[in-house]
């Protein structure tokens, strides 16, 4: 019944630290997406999962970013050695993945790297 | 290189009047277009979509028009209501097996009572 949820809602960290952002998609949705929205910009695609596998990770900016979805439901976006430029709102979305392009978004995690 | 462009950062209209939000795209592979609405501190919410095989789709007060030859689409809201005040994002996808969305920068709509 619930929509997409993301935790934490806010994360403040120091430059160089490691962070994990969690996404709980809508139950039954096979497709899961991560986007990043910087100030004054629209959301930008990071990675797409179909089930457990990352079908498209072409949007990840570099190898400090990694995401997993081990059981085909919850996903975790991991950022190593954070930089100030990583500060943004990280959005997760899910969909049925059956040709319906409507993606349901979570509220996002606001990451601030000091 | 912005593949989806919303050239108006903001738009202000009076309650009851029509709001027209515009969007242009450059990628000819895009075949499905969506509008999302976003309130502060919330994620984007799907509003309306249109396939490239159509030129118009209507849902209540919201109508999306697509001009493929001009690579242009617009969202019409009639009549506009104060609750419509939000940021509106135009998004596009190439379909196929990967439905990743490419978004514009958004337009802040303010509907004044």
Helix/strand layout:
The complex is a heterodimer of chains A (114) and B (113).
Chain A lengths: L4 E3 L2 E4 L5 E6 L6 E7 L6 E7 L2 E4 L8 E4 L6 E5 L8 E8 L8 E2 L3 E5 L1
Parallel strand pairs in A: 2-11
Antiparallel strand pairs in A: 1-3, 3-8, 4-5, 4-9, 5-6, 7-8, 9-10, 9-11
Chain B lengths: L3 E2 L4 E5 L4 E7 L6 E7 L6 E7 L4 E4 L2 E6 L4 E6 L8 E8 L8 E2 L3 E6 L1
Parallel strand pairs in B: 2-11
Antiparallel strand pairs in B: 1-3, 3-8, 4-5, 4-9, 6-7, 7-8, 9-10, 9-11
Describe this structure in a few short sentences.
The complex is a heterodimer of chains A (114) and B (113). Chain A has 114 residues and is mainly beta.
Largest sheet of chain A: 7 strands, mixed
What's the average pLDDT of chain A? 93
* N- and C-termini, Cα separation of chain B: 37 Å
Low-confidence stretches of chain A: none
Order of helices and strands of chain B: EEEEEEEEEEE
Number of helices of chain B: 0
Could you name the key traits of this structure?
heterodimer, A: 114 residues, mainly beta, seven-stranded mixed sheet, B: 113 residues, six-stranded mixed sheet, globular
Describe the structure.
The complex is a heterodimer of chains A (114) and B (113). Chain A is mainly β. Helices cover 0% and strands 48% of the residues of chain A. Chain A is built from no helices and 11 strands. Chain A has strands at residues 5-7, 10-13, 19-24, 31-37, 44-50, 53-56, 65-68, 75-79, 88-95, 104-105, 109-113. In chain A, a hairpin with an 8-residue loop joins β9 and β10 (104-105). The radius of gyration of chain A is 13 Å and the shape is globular. The N and C termini of chain A lie far apart (37 Å). Helix content of chain B is 0%, strand content 53%. Chain B is built from no helices and 11 strands. In chain B, the strands form 2 sheets. In chain B, strands 2, 4, 5, 9, 10 and 11 form a 6-stranded mixed sheet that branches. In chain B, strands 1-3-8-7-6 form a 5-stranded antiparallel sheet, with no helix packed on it. The radius of gyration of chain B is 13 Å and the shape is globular. Classes of the chains: A mainly beta (114), B mainly beta (113). Chains A and B meet through β4, β5, β9 and β10 of A and β4, β5, β9 and β10 of B.
